[in-house]
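Worked problem 6 (solution included).
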Amino acid sequence: MSSLMRAVRQHAFGGPEVLQVGEIERPEPLWTEVLVRVHAAGVNPVDCKTRAGGGISPTQGDLPFTIGWDVSGVVEAVGSGVTRFAPGDEVFGMVDFPRAGAAYAEYVTADSRQLAPKPANVTHVQAAAVPLVGLTAWQSLVSVGDVGPGKRVLVHGAAGGLGHIAVQIARARGAHVAGTARADQAALLEDCGLDQLVDYTTTRFEDVVHDIDIVVDTVAGDNGLRSLRTMRPGGVLVSLPVPPDDATVEEARRRGLRAVSLTVEADRADLEALTALVAAGALRPHVGDVLPLERADKAHELIESGQSRGKVVLSVVDGE
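Solution. The predicted structure is:
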């Protein structure tokens, strides 16, 4: 095996054009780590923000570096002490978030407990679309919201990369789910199991949605404060793009609600719970665009322009 690999590198912060493919040294697994031959890498909004100098850029180390955290691939080698995987195993996960995951590359190393066996009923491209958004949605709904039968959930941006996953998790846990999206996204959301679609271009959601226990807000703006009017006492608003402002937190407290923020964490148990849902067919990621590693710049353009439908994934191995 060559000691070099292809990876997307950036030598400066800026627009998508700063993402360029080059050759760098292939990493080697340390104790408890595995080396993964990446077949596909998921692309997320935080990738774009970090590339531009925002997001979690302060944790990435000195330039140049490689961004990305979602991977699906095959174990190439294992470090000392690894018992969960062996070379040849298909795995997926979110690696080293919020540190430098370096997922836009032919190989990555990761602690073995950040990965799970890839479900056999999905491709590497589909699997790479799940980890970061899936863990974020799971931790918002389950860890924070304790979603289950009898609960009522409102998802803002329900057709987005995170939103459509949140809809499916809530439905799989027995909740009633409403979501804001455009009318032309109705077919996708019906397939995800959405119970009530609110077209935000024509209808104010607070006029038609009521008795909500958990709000997952992927949009921000004034959605948080307006969402409080839809909720019943004891409910929780989880604001994901940015923390809720002071006015929203105070109004939530006054109404007997909570308004909180959440940053996703790599968690083996949560990832394995997501794996079980995918394997059972209860969670199906919608992949809108698949691009080669060399077009990471185009992938970021699609996300930042709002033109992508579903998740954007980089295919690192031909044919994936």
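Discussion: The chain has two domains: 4-130+285-315, 133-261.
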